[in-house]
Design brief:
Two copies of one chain form a homodimer. Chain A has 461 residues and is α/β, with parallel strands linked by helices. Chain A is built from 17 helices and eleven strands. Chain A has three domains: 2-66; 86-348, Aspartate Aminotransferase, domain 2; 349-458, Aspartate Aminotransferase, domain 1 (Alpha-Beta Complex). In chain A, β5 (245-250), α10 and β6 form a beta-alpha-beta unit. In chain A, α1 runs parallel beside α3, α4 (81-93) packs across α14 (336-346) and α6 (135-150) crosses α7. Chains A, B: Keywords: Decarboxylase, Lyase, Pyridoxal phosphate.
Amino acid sequence: MRALVAAAMERIGAHIEALPAMPVCDVAGGAALARTLREGLPAEGCPFEHVLGVLFDRAVPCTFNTASPGYLAYVPGGGLFLAAVADLIADATNRYVGVWQAAPGLVQLETNAVRWLAEIVGLPAGSGGFLTTGGSLATFSAVVTARSEKLGERFDDGVIYTSDQAHHSVQRAARLAGFRRDQVREIGVDERFRVDVAAMAAAIAADRARGRRPCLVVGHAGTTNTGAVDDLAALADLAAREGLWLHVDAAYGGFFCLTARGRAALAGIECADSVTLDPHKGMFLPYGTGCLLARDPAALRRAHGSPADYLPPMQDDPDFVDYCELSPELSRDFRGLRVWLPLKLLGARVFARALDEKLDLAEVCAAALRELPGVELVAPPQLSLLAFRHVPAGATEGPELDAHNRRWLAAINRRGRVFLTGTMVRGGFVLRICVVSFRTHRSRIDAALADIRAGLAEVGG
Amino acid sequence: MRALVAAAMERIGAHIEALPAMPVCDVAGGAALARTLREGLPAEGCPFEHVLGVLFDRAVPCTFNTASPGYLAYVPGGGLFLAAVADLIADATNRYVGVWQAAPGLVQLETNAVRWLAEIVGLPAGSGGFLTTGGSLATFSAVVTARSEKLGERFDDGVIYTSDQAHHSVQRAARLAGFRRDQVREIGVDERFRVDVAAMAAAIAADRARGRRPCLVVGHAGTTNTGAVDDLAALADLAAREGLWLHVDAAYGGFFCLTARGRAALAGIECADSVTLDPHKGMFLPYGTGCLLARDPAALRRAHGSPADYLPPMQDDPDFVDYCELSPELSRDFRGLRVWLPLKLLGARVFARALDEKLDLAEVCAAALRELPGVELVAPPQLSLLAFRHVPAGATEGPELDAHNRRWLAAINRRGRVFLTGTMVRGGFVLRICVVSFRTHRSRIDAALADIRAGLAEVGG
């Protein structure tokens, strides 16, 4: 057992030390690699060294290097090593935390972690929630809870409201929960990509007039496209006035509430009925840790709870949480340890400082991009994400302009020090920078800006 | 980093060595412990030794000892240490496997693992699926897929059929997916607790006559109550005849297909449209690894897929799987490594032998219980789970008989060497033994039988 861990740690240590110098994206030959790795169920085993070789020499290098300090694509994961230690302990001890009675102390540590997250976004005492594997399942449970609270078992006439910049997990959550496509309204946005609250109010009124039942507003605290933060206070007012459930998808943005700038940008989030957070984004944890917070955990229980003769008795004391009653899972990992251990060991201030640094770095990027002739800051950072493109003199909207910007993106990424991705905004292709990795510091941002300038020169900017 | 792991491994090693002698269930003082562990968000950190102390000296000991060889309760988890090593590597390298393009080699390893599981239950080439955190979410996605394939966006008139011994996750999955309670029929069972297929056929006919749309049959390969395996071949015939989706919940039983006896008991599972498996049961992994297999992975994609501008392009080659398209998750952990690594390193035969041993041990229990006067084997093992009770001479059904058996259960568990649980069967309380832990061998089963006899003597059997 110890020998296995020692051998794995040799490889892990070397890998993490090499990260800064490794290419940020290297998937050339991926299809061929995948084909050579294919094999049937092995009857007999093989040595651990062989397994480590497959992983560290072949499969891990051929990836988007999501763990690199230069990974500024999508919304970066992190990979705080403390979480790996937490999982090592959780897996090896393998206790069951879905039912309070089975592990009262461990469940309390998970509950501490959930309450800390609620405290971070400013939800009141008495709020709760549960940890998921990521934002998508958190948002799914929010939709199910809103459906259960506002519509009941028949919801053919229910309507959900969000922005046309919504993460696709909102549409998907609605579909999984049994809503039809035409029961989700994607409302337009303002020039900063924030949902048009007046238009949403009008849509709600129009639906009511047609006999529909509006049930849920989904706001965003940091969209994936451009990092836009909706006017959450206005959405909270609207939802309260209309008696709707307010869910805020703060998967990317929520942890910035640890900073003064973030709290200002996300003002109103504390009025939400439920909030999606991704500790694997703003808390720098490895992929696989999301969270759904709820002002009234009893609503989660009404939507998800399910009795069974073969289970131990559930708790009525609200301090003692049976997570299998609040969430769609029964057996599952002790993922609370992954959240609790880093916060307990490092303290919240360390995270606040790191997130403040990310906000600063995004501002550095924005300031530098504003200096570049012809570069349009399509979405200045509201948090740590920004979108931009180059518009050569005389260029007009269309496929040629998009192709030009795609070439620019490729020229930047080809240099191997940073990895950016693009998206479509108002019908045009834009480049994005998202600074969230705990490994990204000023020196790498300077490298990014140098490569952005060099790439632009290369494509004739 | 290495120091953290070394310190954690000290504790883990000592814990695992002590497991056989530790009490199998010790949650006395759990409420008090939980209250003392409660605390607000810490601004500053604390030493790692303190964290290890909280975990190993306080929280972990006060639990149902799910990792103990004497844990024969519910359906035991396992906690194969290799999976902990896999998670350590997956967390530390933190690559993203939700999209094929982001990690072609790692995704292939996960796909190998999924295909191995499909091979184990006998699904044909071309079948696929995805890993979940457990059986509940796997079954949920099966229900959503059946709904999408058989009913479409409007499913008010759809009906689901399962047995009255169904795991509660079936009802819950239907509810989450938007079905009303009255859209799920729980059909009665035969004397071996297997669903009455003729009664199910009659219910389907009756529903069709009333204009309802039958869509899904959920069979069980090892119920949680008594370990019953439905006649899966008959269910497959029925589903094929009626054009319904057949899902088999083999969360507990599926891995026994690695053994000759298991394959015989589960004959017909290879005809299912989808199958729930829990590698954290029959593959002895730590809690948190389930699987949904599907004969036609394209159906999973039709039900779950969701495009987005900000994502990389998805694959059309069926060999290259984008897991975010088949499943409800987007960002999530690389849980494939937890399944792939132990199978690759140990080979399937090791698991087959271990599962054969569990079948033998359940037979040993059954034979010994048959010898005890007044003991009724309510459910002889169809796999490795059995249910029984003591009926004193002249006793009749009712609360007194139940109380007598509850006292017997308590007298067994009080001895601390094994932990059994009970359930309600045909209105009466029964004791259960479920042998699934890789740590449970003959010596512990002999101890269990000794404690069962001693407990019975104590309560006057």
